Amino acid sequence: MIFIRNNLFALLISLLFWTCTFIPFDASAERLVQNKNQYHANLWDRIRSGFALALPPDSKAIRKIEALYAQNPEAFNRIVASSERYLYYIVDEIERRDMPMEIALLPVIESSYNPMNKSHRQAAGLWQFIPATGKILGLAQNVWHDDRRDIVASTQAALDYLQYLYKKFNNWKLAIAAYNLGEGAVSKILAKSVHKGRAVNFYDLNLPTEVKNYVFRLLAVKDLIVNSKKYGIKLRPVPNRPYFDTVQIREPIDISLVTRLANISEAEFNALNPAYNRYVIKVMSEPRTLLLPRDNKEIFLKNLETYQDPKVSWQFYRVKKDENIHEIATRFGTTVKQLQAINGISRNKNLTLGQKILVPQAIGEIYAENTAHRKKQLQNYRSGVYIVRKGDTLSEIAKRHGTTVDQIKLWNDSDENLSIGQKLQLSRS
Fold first, then answer.
1. Domain ranges of the chain
2. Catalytically annotated residues
């Protein structure tokens, strides 16, 4: 019995030892598996290693699409070049979610990796969301910004939606088809096929030709990336490291000031932050996230910390009765063209009563002060009191108020010397 107990005890100690030994080893191995793709110097190699969708047995349709791309490699490389700012972030997110890496190529099909692309159906951004779908997925769309064009927000929404579709259909090709056609339409086609006892895989389903071609285009691009040399396409290497970093903005700021403080061009800012519709980044209840080139983030934060002047040079102005854009432009020391550009007003569109438009802040404040001053002067005039302003003379004041210089002197027991801010009685009560 003692022998058995000793052996059991030895076995227990042995199991405990090996368990303790292998747990950290397994955890380390898992980290190695997760990070193995991150050791590629070229991001394209990392992308290739994550591809998971097989080409169809009969690839005629895909070969046809590939031929179109291969015949115009310059156009294909322009799309590839457009992707370079965004690709690392998207690849990283797809890898983190354990999704097929083909998903990173969807914006090639949707928008040619141009976040400013807009379709005839009003779909916008890298992932081409129509307004209704954008709202369902929580992408804000207002006068200040359209988050369908926001690189981070739209990517998160697209990947969330694709994961949801995969969970629903349990097939990535069907999920991608549903992303294009709509989950309701794909569900109906699937239900019909099941009802008729037919096969329910992607290739056998009675999907519209354009939807199948959508998936084929994605697979064709994937095959071009895998076999780029075969098709005579030279893929420019993309460094396997982040291109941009995020910065939280908690108060309104001019885009022109951001570019100055970050030491980047306006074109670079717009490429990374295409969601903004105006020259001002409006911060409401939640902070806004800006993307800046990684090397410029600290420059921006350091400069922002020491910047003491106003951060916004534009303000809202409410259009009054019978005002037109020419009058407002003159009053606020700007041009009609600039007002139209910042407010998204077309050339032939008239302003409406109560419409809110952006006008230059500094001059706007002066105008507001002058307006307030005129109101105060009017109140004083109605009460029989006039406050002297710079350049006033007694004769001008008398003429303006229908009286005489002598009468003003009599009412105020004064001579002709005036001082700015002096109150003159213009009637006897």
1. 42-226, 244-306, 313-382, 384-429
2. 110
